[in-house]
Amino acid sequence: MALYVYAITGQDHPLAVGDVTGVGADPSPVRALACGPLYAVVSDVSEEIRPKRRDLLIHQEVQERLMEGGPVLPLQFGYTAADEATVEQALRKDADGYLANLERLDGCVEYHVRAFQNEEELLRQILRETPETRELNDRIRAGDPDPQLPLTLGRAVAAQVRERQDALAAGLTDALVPYAREHDVRPATGDDLLNLSLLVSDDRREEFLSAQAGLVRQLGDGVEFRLSGPLPPYSFVR
After folding, report:
1. How many Å apart are CA 67 and CA 88, to the nearest integer?
2. Angle CA 198–201–206, to nearest 5
3. Is the C-alpha dihedral spanning 199, 201, 202, 203 positive or negative?
4. Which family does the record claim for this protein (predicted)?
Protein backbone atom coordinates (compact mmCIF):
# COMPACT_ATOMS: atom_id res chain seq x y z
CA MET A 1 0.00 0.00 0.00
CA ALA A 2 1.14 3.56 -0.70
CA LEU A 3 2.26 5.73 2.18
CA TYR A 4 1.78 9.41 2.85
CA VAL A 5 4.96 10.73 4.49
CA TYR A 6 4.65 13.61 6.95
CA ALA A 7 8.12 13.97 8.41
CA ILE A 8 11.40 12.37 9.48
CA THR A 9 12.54 12.26 13.10
CA GLY A 10 15.23 10.62 15.19
CA GLN A 11 14.77 7.33 17.00
CA ASP A 12 14.59 9.04 20.41
CA HIS A 13 11.61 11.22 19.46
CA PRO A 14 8.46 10.58 21.58
CA LEU A 15 6.26 10.50 18.44
CA ALA A 16 3.07 11.66 20.14
CA VAL A 17 0.86 11.15 17.08
CA GLY A 18 -0.59 7.70 17.70
CA ASP A 19 -4.09 9.07 18.23
CA VAL A 20 -4.13 11.08 14.99
CA THR A 21 -6.01 9.83 11.95
CA GLY A 22 -4.17 10.62 8.75
CA VAL A 23 -5.01 12.21 5.43
CA GLY A 24 -7.18 10.83 2.66
CA ALA A 25 -10.79 9.83 1.97
CA ASP A 26 -10.33 6.58 3.91
CA PRO A 27 -7.87 7.75 6.60
CA SER A 28 -5.70 5.38 8.60
CA PRO A 29 -3.79 6.00 11.84
CA VAL A 30 -0.57 7.96 11.72
CA ARG A 31 2.36 5.71 12.62
CA ALA A 32 6.14 5.60 12.69
CA LEU A 33 8.21 3.50 10.31
CA ALA A 34 11.62 2.74 11.86
CA CYS A 35 14.84 2.42 9.89
CA GLY A 36 18.06 2.42 11.89
CA PRO A 37 18.42 5.68 13.83
CA LEU A 38 15.50 7.32 12.03
CA TYR A 39 11.74 7.26 11.90
CA ALA A 40 9.50 8.23 9.01
CA VAL A 41 6.08 9.37 10.20
CA VAL A 42 3.52 7.99 7.76
CA SER A 43 -0.05 6.83 7.20
CA ASP A 44 -1.52 4.48 4.61
CA VAL A 45 -3.31 6.04 1.63
CA SER A 46 -5.20 4.50 -1.26
CA GLU A 47 -5.58 7.50 -3.56
CA GLU A 48 -3.81 10.62 -4.76
CA ILE A 49 -3.83 13.24 -2.01
CA ARG A 50 -5.10 16.66 -2.99
CA PRO A 51 -4.92 19.84 -0.89
CA LYS A 52 -8.35 19.65 0.73
CA ARG A 53 -8.93 21.61 3.91
CA ARG A 54 -9.16 18.60 6.21
CA ASP A 55 -6.01 17.02 4.83
CA LEU A 56 -4.06 20.27 5.05
CA LEU A 57 -5.11 20.63 8.69
CA ILE A 58 -4.16 17.04 9.51
CA HIS A 59 -0.77 17.48 7.86
CA GLN A 60 -0.11 20.59 9.91
CA GLU A 61 -1.37 19.00 13.14
CA VAL A 62 1.09 16.13 12.75
CA GLN A 63 3.96 18.55 12.17
CA GLU A 64 3.07 20.66 15.20
CA ARG A 65 2.76 17.66 17.48
CA LEU A 66 6.10 16.33 16.35
CA MET A 67 7.71 19.75 16.75
CA GLU A 68 6.70 19.81 20.43
CA GLY A 69 8.62 16.59 21.08
CA GLY A 70 11.96 17.44 19.48
CA PRO A 71 13.64 18.18 16.16
CA VAL A 72 11.75 17.18 13.04
CA LEU A 73 12.30 17.35 9.30
CA PRO A 74 8.84 18.27 7.98
CA LEU A 75 7.92 17.32 4.43
CA GLN A 76 5.79 19.61 2.31
CA PHE A 77 2.17 18.62 1.85
CA GLY A 78 1.51 15.88 -0.68
CA TYR A 79 4.59 13.65 -0.48
CA THR A 80 3.79 9.96 -1.02
CA ALA A 81 5.85 6.80 -1.45
CA ALA A 82 4.94 3.57 -3.19
CA ASP A 83 5.46 1.34 -0.14
CA GLU A 84 7.41 0.86 3.08
CA ALA A 85 10.46 -0.49 1.24
CA THR A 86 10.73 2.75 -0.75
CA VAL A 87 10.67 4.85 2.43
CA GLU A 88 13.21 2.62 4.18
CA GLN A 89 15.53 2.80 1.18
CA ALA A 90 15.38 6.60 1.19
CA LEU A 91 16.14 6.74 4.92
CA ARG A 92 19.12 4.38 4.59
CA LYS A 93 20.50 6.18 1.56
CA ASP A 94 20.92 9.54 3.30
CA ALA A 95 20.80 8.66 6.99
CA ASP A 96 23.87 10.76 7.81
CA GLY A 97 22.37 13.81 6.10
CA TYR A 98 19.05 13.46 7.89
CA LEU A 99 20.76 13.06 11.26
CA ALA A 100 22.94 16.12 10.62
CA ASN A 101 19.84 18.14 9.73
CA LEU A 102 18.02 17.01 12.87
CA GLU A 103 20.98 18.06 14.98
CA ARG A 104 21.19 21.42 13.22
CA LEU A 105 17.48 22.14 13.74
CA ASP A 106 17.31 20.93 17.34
CA GLY A 107 15.86 23.60 19.63
CA CYS A 108 14.75 25.82 16.75
CA VAL A 109 11.48 26.86 15.14
CA GLU A 110 10.62 28.81 12.02
CA TYR A 111 8.99 32.21 11.90
CA HIS A 112 7.70 33.72 8.69
CA VAL A 113 7.44 37.48 8.26
CA ARG A 114 5.58 39.22 5.47
CA ALA A 115 5.15 42.98 5.21
CA PHE A 116 2.84 45.18 3.19
CA GLN A 117 2.98 48.97 2.83
CA ASN A 118 -0.12 51.11 2.51
CA GLU A 119 0.02 52.23 -1.12
CA GLU A 120 -1.94 55.44 -0.75
CA GLU A 121 0.21 56.64 2.14
CA LEU A 122 3.38 55.72 0.23
CA LEU A 123 2.27 57.66 -2.85
CA ARG A 124 1.48 60.71 -0.72
CA GLN A 125 4.96 60.51 0.80
CA ILE A 126 6.60 60.29 -2.61
CA LEU A 127 4.67 63.26 -4.02
CA ARG A 128 5.40 65.25 -0.88
CA GLU A 129 9.08 64.39 -0.41
CA THR A 130 10.49 63.95 -3.93
CA PRO A 131 11.09 67.24 -5.81
CA GLU A 132 10.84 65.62 -9.27
CA THR A 133 7.49 63.95 -8.68
CA ARG A 134 6.12 66.96 -6.80
CA GLU A 135 6.98 69.26 -9.70
CA LEU A 136 5.47 66.92 -12.31
CA ASN A 137 2.31 66.50 -10.26
CA ASP A 138 1.98 70.26 -9.76
CA ARG A 139 2.31 70.86 -13.51
CA ILE A 140 -0.39 68.30 -14.30
CA ARG A 141 -2.74 69.74 -11.69
CA ALA A 142 -2.09 73.25 -13.05
CA GLY A 143 -3.26 72.14 -16.51
CA ASP A 144 0.07 71.75 -18.35
CA PRO A 145 -0.95 70.28 -21.76
CA ASP A 146 2.26 68.25 -22.27
CA PRO A 147 0.93 64.72 -23.04
CA GLN A 148 4.14 63.11 -21.75
CA LEU A 149 3.74 64.41 -18.21
CA PRO A 150 1.46 61.64 -16.85
CA LEU A 151 3.72 58.92 -18.27
CA THR A 152 6.84 60.62 -16.91
CA LEU A 153 5.22 61.03 -13.51
CA GLY A 154 4.10 57.40 -13.48
CA ARG A 155 7.59 56.17 -14.24
CA ALA A 156 9.15 58.42 -11.61
CA VAL A 157 6.66 57.31 -8.96
CA ALA A 158 7.13 53.62 -9.84
CA ALA A 159 10.90 53.99 -9.51
CA GLN A 160 10.48 55.65 -6.12
CA VAL A 161 8.11 52.90 -4.95
CA ARG A 162 10.63 50.20 -5.88
CA GLU A 163 13.53 52.07 -4.29
CA ARG A 164 11.71 52.78 -1.04
CA GLN A 165 10.21 49.34 -0.69
CA ASP A 166 13.54 47.65 -1.41
CA ALA A 167 15.18 49.85 1.21
CA LEU A 168 12.43 49.12 3.75
CA ALA A 169 12.61 45.37 3.12
CA ALA A 170 16.39 45.43 3.54
CA GLY A 171 16.08 47.42 6.75
CA LEU A 172 13.50 45.06 8.22
CA THR A 173 15.63 42.07 7.29
CA ASP A 174 18.72 43.61 8.86
CA ALA A 175 16.76 44.31 12.05
CA LEU A 176 15.44 40.75 12.46
CA VAL A 177 18.22 38.52 11.10
CA PRO A 178 20.52 38.98 14.15
CA TYR A 179 17.98 37.02 16.22
CA ALA A 180 18.04 34.00 13.89
CA ARG A 181 20.50 31.19 13.36
CA GLU A 182 19.64 31.13 9.68
CA HIS A 183 17.35 33.07 7.38
CA ASP A 184 15.89 32.82 3.91
CA VAL A 185 14.74 35.80 1.85
CA ARG A 186 12.40 34.89 -0.97
CA PRO A 187 10.80 37.06 -3.66
CA ALA A 188 7.78 38.88 -2.28
CA THR A 189 4.48 38.11 -3.97
CA GLY A 190 1.38 40.17 -4.62
CA ASP A 191 1.54 43.54 -2.89
CA ASP A 192 4.00 42.37 -0.22
CA LEU A 193 7.42 43.95 0.01
CA LEU A 194 8.99 41.32 2.29
CA ASN A 195 8.92 37.52 2.38
CA LEU A 196 11.34 36.41 5.10
CA SER A 197 11.76 33.09 6.91
CA LEU A 198 13.88 32.87 10.05
CA LEU A 199 15.18 29.91 12.02
CA VAL A 200 15.04 31.05 15.63
CA SER A 201 16.45 29.09 18.57
CA ASP A 202 14.34 28.64 21.67
CA ASP A 203 16.62 30.80 23.78
CA ARG A 204 16.16 33.80 21.44
CA ARG A 205 12.45 33.55 20.68
CA GLU A 206 11.39 36.18 23.20
CA GLU A 207 14.06 38.59 21.96
CA PHE A 208 12.96 38.04 18.40
CA LEU A 209 9.28 38.58 19.18
CA SER A 210 10.10 41.71 21.15
CA ALA A 211 12.17 43.10 18.27
CA GLN A 212 9.40 42.36 15.77
CA ALA A 213 6.81 44.04 17.98
CA GLY A 214 9.12 47.05 18.30
CA LEU A 215 9.28 47.36 14.51
CA VAL A 216 5.49 47.26 14.31
CA ARG A 217 5.24 50.13 16.81
CA GLN A 218 8.02 52.10 15.14
CA LEU A 219 6.55 51.95 11.64
CA GLY A 220 2.95 52.55 12.71
CA ASP A 221 -0.06 52.10 10.48
CA GLY A 222 1.83 52.61 7.22
CA VAL A 223 3.27 49.09 7.23
CA GLU A 224 1.32 45.91 7.97
CA PHE A 225 3.22 42.91 9.35
CA ARG A 226 2.01 39.32 9.12
CA LEU A 227 3.95 37.08 11.48
CA SER A 228 3.45 33.31 11.33
CA GLY A 229 4.95 30.95 13.89
CA PRO A 230 6.30 29.16 15.65
CA LEU A 231 6.25 26.72 12.74
CA PRO A 232 8.05 23.50 11.85
CA PRO A 233 11.24 24.47 9.98
CA TYR A 234 9.99 23.80 6.44
CA SER A 235 12.26 26.42 4.88
CA PHE A 236 15.44 25.08 6.46
CA VAL A 237 15.32 21.36 5.66
CA ARG A 238 18.25 20.62 3.38
Report:
1. 22
2. 90
3. negative
4. Belongs to the gas vesicle GvpF/GvpL family.
Q: Is 92 exposed, middle or buried (0-12, 13-18, 19+ CB in 10 A)?
A: exposed
How far CA 74 is from CA of 71, 135, 145, 196, in Å, comes to 9, 54, 61, 19
Q: Tell whether 131 and 180 lie within a shared domain.
A: yes
> How many domains is the chain built from?
2
Same domain, 124 and 229: yes
- Residue 2 pairs in a beta bridge with 45
Each residue's pLDDT tens digit, 37-58: 999 999 999 888 888 999 999 9
User: Does the predicted model carry a pTM greater than 0.70?
Assistant: yes
What's at 105, amino acid-wise?
Answer: L
